[in-house]
């Protein structure tokens, strides 16, 4: 008890950082997270559609082949484009996984049931040795 009283600031920092770390594991905004390997299997086995939610400049710098680019900030406005894919698995991709998880939550709220976020985003995809395309989608 004496240690805690003498090091109150250190204890507060430790408790706060632990709580924040725990919150990232507990609170997922929506959708199921997939590893790059799981995403590849879903693409190959169930014809999953990949949607890159990064900004156009990020998308052009490198993206998963055949991905559609719909920036996260435009998901709500472009729901009609995605309606025809409502029953198909969707894999949302961003740079690190944060924006795609938020976009998954928006799609889930809109009634999409098969939405997934690529854990680690395009960074994890590249780190896994998987190919990317550069330039705009044709």
TrEMBL record:
InterPro entries: GlpE_sulfurtransferase, Rhodanese-like_dom, Rhodanese-like_dom_sf. Pfam families: Rhodanese. Residues 44-134 form the Rhodanese domain. CDD domains: RHOD (cd00158). The keyword tRNA-binding does not apply. Gene3D superfamilies: Rhodanese-like domain. Keywords: Membrane, Transmembrane, Transmembrane helix. PANTHER family: FAD-DEPENDENT OXIDOREDUCTASE (PTHR43031), RHODANESE-RELATED SULFURTRANSFERASES (PTHR43031:SF18). This is Rhodanese-like domain-containing protein. It comes from Rhodocyclus gracilis.
